[in-house]
Design a protein that fits this description.
single chain; mainly alpha; 302 residues; 62% helix
């Protein structure tokens, strides 16, 4: 049972979401928008409205859907928003159309909720976040002001993204999550690359096919050293993706992991494709310029 206080907070949140819908989509009835069978259309209109208000998206304002191949229910669908955030259907869907609507509904709720003032990175938010970070690692204010420390690097990233929403910040953090998962940050640290340079570079680095190919090649090299590691990691990733989808969480990190590992698997035993991926790995010399080029190449066994 919800307490009276929890019920009041929930009612206030719903009211706030409805107010945001009314301001961005005045022609929609906010009381029914999240139940609307045209939720797919509503989601697209929401993001087009944001573009018209001045928001800039690298890939345009188109909302992209991806249905998971299946011959029977339950059907699953993912939706990627213009900024890069990804959500998925989480109910038991009997048709592909139901799955598409369910994914759109989850994405719309998160999109609208992201417009609330509490989701904007402000100085107050940064102060609270730094206090929590310092408490969790027993850090100090001195550490927070030192960009060479992990807390200092986190502070710098928050400062650089002041005024952005949490979804926008999460999209940036996904790149660093992948670099950590992939082992690239460890390699850069061993090559004496500074945290400041790494953050400055990757804060402006798109999560594109070139970056995915770099990471896929790294996993191919791990496979050469430890046969079967890609399949094991893929199974773990699929479980993480499923758990996150079923709870309505943002999925970009898990979905990108899956795509990178699938790309690696598709290249096993194909020398010509591996050579092509090697070329893509070396496609950005600005990255290699962060540290000693030859050492970095030798570390990756290129």
């Amino acid at each position: 049972m919800l307490s009276e206080e929890d019920r009041r907070k929930m009612d206030n949140t719903v009211k706030s979401l409805q107010d945001i819908v009314s301001s961005l989509l005045p022609e929609k009835n906010p009381a029914f928008v999240f139940k609307d069978l045209n939720v797919v259309e509503t989601l697209q209109e929401f993001w087009e409205k944001k573009r018209n208000q001045g928001a800039v998206f690298k890939n345009g304002s188109l909302v992209v859907y991806e249905s998971v191949p299946s011959s029977a229910a339950p059907y699953v669908c993912y939706v990627t928003l213009p900024g890069g955030s990804c959500f998925g259907s989480f109910q038991y869907c009997l048709t592909k159309a139901d799955a598409r609507r369910d994914a759109a509904r989850v994405a719309l709720v998160n999109s609208v909720f992201n417009e609330q003032p509490s989701r904007i990175i402000t100085m107050e938010f940064i102060r609270n976040s730094m206090e929590e970070a310092m408490d969790s690692v027993c850090g100090s204010t001195k550490d927070a002001l030192d960009p060479s420390t992990s807390i200092g690097a986190y502070y710098r990233m928050l400062e650089a993204n002041r005024g952005k929403t949490m979804l926008e910040f999460q999209e940036l953090m996904t790149v660093f999550q992948l670099l950590h998962w992939n082992g690239s940050l460890k390699i850069l640290r061993e090559r004496k690359c500074s945290r400041q340079d790494v953050i400055s570079y990757y804060s402006n680095q798109a999560l594109d096919d070139c970056l995915r190919s770099q990471m896929a090649l790294d996993w191919l090299m791990k496979e050469n050293k430890t046969p079967g590691i890609i399949s094991v990691e893929l199974q773990s990733t699929l479980k993480d993706l499923e758990r996150a989808r079923e709870t309505g969480r943002e999925l970009r990190f898990h979905k990108e992991r899956k795509e990178i590992l699938m790309l690696s698997l598709s290249q096993i035993g194909s020398e010509s494709n591996n050579d092509q991926m090697c070329e893509q790995t070396l496609c950005d010399f600005n990255l290699l310029g962060l540290c000693n080029i030859m050492q970095f190449i030798q570390e990756r066994n290129l």
